Structures are given as structure tokens and as C-alpha cells.
Amino acid sequence: MTFFKNMRVRIKLILCFLIISILIVIVGIIGIKSLGVVNANSEEMYNNRLQSVYMLTDMKQNLTQAESDILQLVYVKDNFKKDDLEKDIQQNKAESDKYISSYEKLSMNDEEKQIWSTFKSQLSQYRTLRENVVESVNTANNDKVVTQYEQLIGYKTEMFSNLEKLISINNDSAKASNVENHLVYITSNRSMIILMIIGALIAIGLGLFISRDINNPLMETLDFAENLSKFDLTHEYQVTRKDEFGKTSEALIKAQKNIKELIKVIMDNSQDMSASSEELSSTSEELSSKVQEIDNAVTNITAQIEDASASSQQISASIQEIDSSINELSGKAIEGSNNANNAKEKSTKGKKDGKEIMDQVQNLYTEKRNNMLQAIEDGKVVKNIRVMAETISGIAEQTNLLALNASIEAARAGEQGKGFEVVAQEVGKLAEESQNAVASIQDTILKVQDASKKLSENGSDLLRFINEEIYGKIEQLRGIIDYYSEDSNFVSKMSEEIASMSEELTATVAQVSDAIQNVASTSQKSSENAQNIKIGVSETTKAIDQVALSAQSQAEFSQKLSEMVQKFKI
Fold this sequence. Notes:
Blueprint: H1 2-6, H2 9-76, H3 79-105, H4 110-139, H5 142-229, H6 244-338, H7 340-343, H8 347-379, H9 381-412, H10 418-482, H11 488-566
């Protein structure tokens, strides 16, 4: 039984159908042999026995007809019928000869052959006597005819007796063949019925056995599938056969084991992934907050740089006004030198004009001094920009560290965290770009501070020069104007000195103007860099928001995965 269980299903089915086929072949062989016997007996019955009876009966009828014709020739003595009767006798003789020839071609047993030989001998003698009777009738020898006819009747009785024996033998043989056919039918019918019953029982038994042999493992497989559909992996199955069903069961058991291990791994990793997702989400929120602080700081820096640029423009405008005033003062000094000789005549007018000039210079000095001091004070806002840039640099470093932490957490998340790792790398790049931009801003701020320092120093020198030199000269000029009429030559010389000082002052103001232009240009570049930082920070914010969304999606996915694997019973 174990050997049959371990046999392949294909071979089992082939063996079962082969057994049934053998039974069918046996039944067919018995039927064919029985039909062959029946067919041989039927041919024997028809070709030999029935044909023999038919020919012997016809021969008997012909002999009877010939006897009737002889009787008419002997006793009726009708000359009109004589020829017809003789002709009929010859015709019956010819037909009988044909029957004799055909009968001798048929198979006969020894008894038939002996009787047939006696019959032929008697027939020959009978025909000789019959011809003698006919001849006597033709010669009108009535006495001899009667004697010969009586002898003919004696031969006829013995001959017909043998003929009847032959007919009886053929009838008996036909009956025997029929009986044999009936026995063959009964035997074959009984054998085939028995074999059919045996075959049916064997087929039913094999069918039940095969169906049970196939149904049992199929039901076990169905039970396994139903348990699997219910997420139940706690059942243990044993394999006791090595056919296709056994191999299938082994494969399913192995698959169940692999699924158990997979579910355990998924359970463990889903918890880790959920924790990593939550940590990544928290990191993303913190990173988003830091980036928002960077964005606010950059906005403030941009506003301060714009204010510094506006102050630089105001300083530049003030310096241009100072330059214009100095040029005007220089022109007037030169004009005073050229007209020194005429100044004596116009001393009164010159005194008045000199006073007006002194008042204008003093007012201009006071106004420009206040503007320059305010511009220098406004230039100190660069220090605040530098502090803000250092703050942005620190925030960018923290952003870079947070991006690095996010990348590490994404790596711990495995395949699920590859997208977050890419985003974290982009955040790191943006933080690095922010640091580079901040470094550029700091460099620019240093240049602006240097330029502002130079501007402050030049402005201080200019104010000190105006306060110490110009204002003193103006005071001297005021005294000179008092003595204008007395010392016009001194006025001419002083005018030349004023012109020379004006040229020096113009050169100094030009340097200050160039420095202010550099400050304005640097402020413009700083503003552009700050705008770029702001754009980068905005993109970083979007990327971090995307990371947060991805982390949230991953957390939801981890939760669903955890809920799904919790359905399994392992």
C-alpha cells in the first residue's frame, strides 16, 4: 500500500485503466471466439447440412417424379404422353446428376460416405432397371414390363431408405450444430456476464480506491488553502507519500514556513520603519522650522542691505553736492584772485559778498557735516548684517547636520527610505549652498565694512579739514574782509590758496564718492546674493515639506502593513 501511495498519479491511473482494458480485451476475445464458433457452425449448417438436405430432397422428388412417369408408362399406356414422359424422365435424371455432383463436393463423415456409396450403387442399378422398363414398354412386352417394374419397386424402396438416412443424418448434424451454437451462446454469455460483473466490481473498486487516494491529499490541500485564506499559519502538516500530491504538500509546507519567516521579518521591520518614519517626520518638522528662521533672517538681511544701499546713495548725493559747492567755492576763489585789483574799488561790495559767502560756507558745512555724520552712522548697519550672516551660517550648519541625520535615518529605513535619502541629500546641498552664499555675503560685508571705514575716515578727514582748515580760513577770510580794502594782495593770495585747497578737497571728495559707489555696488551684489539665498531657502522649505509628506505616507504605509501582518496567526 505504501508503494502504491508513493507511485506517481499518472502511473496509478495508467495501471487502473490498463486492468480495466485487459478485462475488456478478455471479454472481447471470448466474444470473438464464440462468434467464430457460431459462424463456423452456421456455415457448416447452411453450406453442408441445409444444402445437403435441399439437394437430397430434390433428388428424392426427382426420383419420385421419375417413378410416377414409369408408372404411367407401364399402366396407362398413353402413346400421346409416352415421349413426354420419357423426356421428363431424362430431364429428372440430368437434374439428379447435377445434385449428385454438387453433393459429392460437400464434406461428409464416414457414415455419410458409406451410405452415399450404397445409394449411388443402388441408384445406378435403379436407373438400369428403369431403362429396361422403358425399353420393354417401347417393345410392348407387357409381361416383362410388369416383372421389371416390380424389381424396380424393390430397388426404389432400399434406395429411398438410404436417401432418407442421408437426409436424417444431415438434419441431425444441423440440429447438433444448432445445439452447439446454443451452448456456445450460453457459455459465452455466462462468461462475458461474469467478466463484466468482475470488471465492473474491479472498476468500481479501483475508482473508489483512486478517488480516495486522490481525494485525501486534495482535502488536505483544501484545508491548507482555507487556513491560509484565514491568515492561519499555526497548523502543522505531515507528508506520508512521495507522489505528486506529496511533493505538492511538501512545497506548500515549505511555502508556509517561508511565509511565516517573511511575516516575522515584516513585523519586526514594520515597527522599526514606523519608528524611523516618526523620527524622520519629527526631524523634517524641526528642519522646516530652522529653514523658516533662515528665511526670516535672510529677509531681514535683504531689507538692511537695501537700507544700506539707500544710505549709500544718499551719501553719494551729499558728496556730489559738496563737490559742487567746493567747485563753486574754487571758482569764486579764482575769480577773486583775478579780480584782486578791482576788489579794492569794490571793497564795500566785496565785504558784503564775502560775508554772504562765509554764511553760505558755514551753512553748507553744517548741513553737509550733519548729512555725512548721518551717512557714516547709517553705514554702521553693515555690522548688523554681518551678525545676521553669522546667524544664517550657524543655522545652515544646523540644517546640514539635520540633513545628515535625515540621510542616516533614511538609510536605516532601507528601500522605503531611498526617496527620503535623496531629499535629505538635496537639503544638505542646499544647506551647503546657503553656507557658501553666507560666506560670499560675509566677504562682501567685509568689503563694505572696509569701504565704510574708508568712507568714515575720509568723511572724518573731510569734516576735520573743513572744521580745522576751511572754517579757520573762513574766519581768517572774515578778518581779511574787514581789512579787505587795506590788503587786497593778501586777498588775492588767499584766493589762490583757497582754490588749491578746493582742488585737494575735490580730489578727496572724488575718492570718497568712488568708495561710496563701491559700497553701493557691493550692497547691490549682497542684495542679489541674499535673494538667491532666499530662493534656495524657499526650495529647501518645499523639499523639507515633501520629506515630511513622504515620512507621513511612509508612517501610514507602515501602520497599514503592520495591521495587515497582524492578521496572520504564526
